Amino acid sequence: MRTFLLLLTTTAVAFGATQREAAEWIIRKGGRVMVNGSRNPVALLGELPVGDPDVTGVDLSGTVLEPKELDHIAGLEHVRELYLPGSAFTPGAGSKLKQAQDLGILVLDEDGWLDLARQ
Q1: SS3 labels along the chain
Q2: 114 falls within a domain
Q3: Residue 29 lies inside a defined structural domain of this protein
Q4: Residue among 28, 118, 26, 116 at smallest CA distance from 73
Q5: Which CATH number characterizes residue 83's domain?
Q6: Which residues span the domain enclosing 66?
Q7: Within-domain flag for 87
Q8: pLDDT in tens, 23-81
Q9: What pTM was estimated for this model as a whole?
Q10: How far apart are CA 90 and CA 98, in angstroms?
Q11: Is residue 110 part of a domain?
């Protein structure tokens, strides 16, 4: 019985934050969460349900994160959808645009792509 209790305690500590703490962290970083199976994203702390909701979706797209910060959401076991920022949003990732242009690679914005597609 003591081994089981110790294992249960160790597991809880390893996951760290509660669902609510993780949801609040996500919102404070500028992200959104879906909770309790709802498809409606929550972007304001005041809109989180009372208690410890099940976080079923995480949208961190458009935020700036260091990869190690994802530890805050490591224990979310009910997540079915996860949207993370691409490397373009990660500090220190650098821009490959100048390198591509220096190498003579064709670089297009959305309008340029549409023009090329029409040809």
Answers
A1: CHHHHHHHHHHHHHHCCCHHHHHHHHHHCCCEEEECCCCCCECCHHHCCCCCCCEEEEECCCCCCCHHHHHHHCCCCCCCEEECCCHHHCCCCCCCHHHHHHCCCCCCCHHHHHHHHHC
A2: no
A3: yes
A4: 26
A5: 3.80.10.10
A6: 2-92
A7: yes
A8: 999 999 999 999 999 999 999 999 999 999 999 999 999 888 888 888 899 889 999 99
A9: 0.62
A10: 17
A11: no
How many domains does the chain divide into?
1
Buried b / exposed e across 60-86, counting CB within 10 Å, b at 16+?
beebebeeeeeebbebbeebeeeebbe
Q: When comparing pLDDT for 67 and 5, which is higher?
A: 67
Distances (CA, A) of 63 to 17, 19, 28, 101: 20, 20, 10, 27
Q: Which amino acid is located at 45 in the chain?
A: L
